[in-house]
Amino acid sequence: MRFFTAYMISTGIGLHNLGEGLAIGAALSTGNLVLTSVLVVGFALHNGTEGFGIAAPIASITTRLKEPILLGLIAGFPTVVGSVIGSLAQSSMLSTLFFSVAAGAILYVVIELSRVALVQAKAGRIAAGLLIGIVLMYITGLLLPV
To answer: Is the model's pTM score more than 0.90?
Structure first.
């Protein structure tokens, strides 16, 4: 049962990462290397913690080496696939679609985490955290050349 949970978490993260890869590839296909670099660094920073969620269900049991490697590939390889597909997008409509998929994946995670946090914490702290995140995102957008 623990392996099933780990594989389901890994699969969900992989689907989420596919959208991120699409955004990276779409940014690359538009020739915007600054945006591509920002997306790669930003997604790498937030993906660094996803391994904890995958490993948590199987942390107390002995595993062979192939299990963590396979779980990591299931979660991470869709980013590469999405980047390749996104980089092939030569139309603004496809780029917009790929950015929308990535934004939807991130928005889904934010909403779910906010819902869980609202049960466990005060609503004011959650609202302040979301506001700070939006302001930082806006400032980051101002720093990127158009």
So the answer is: no
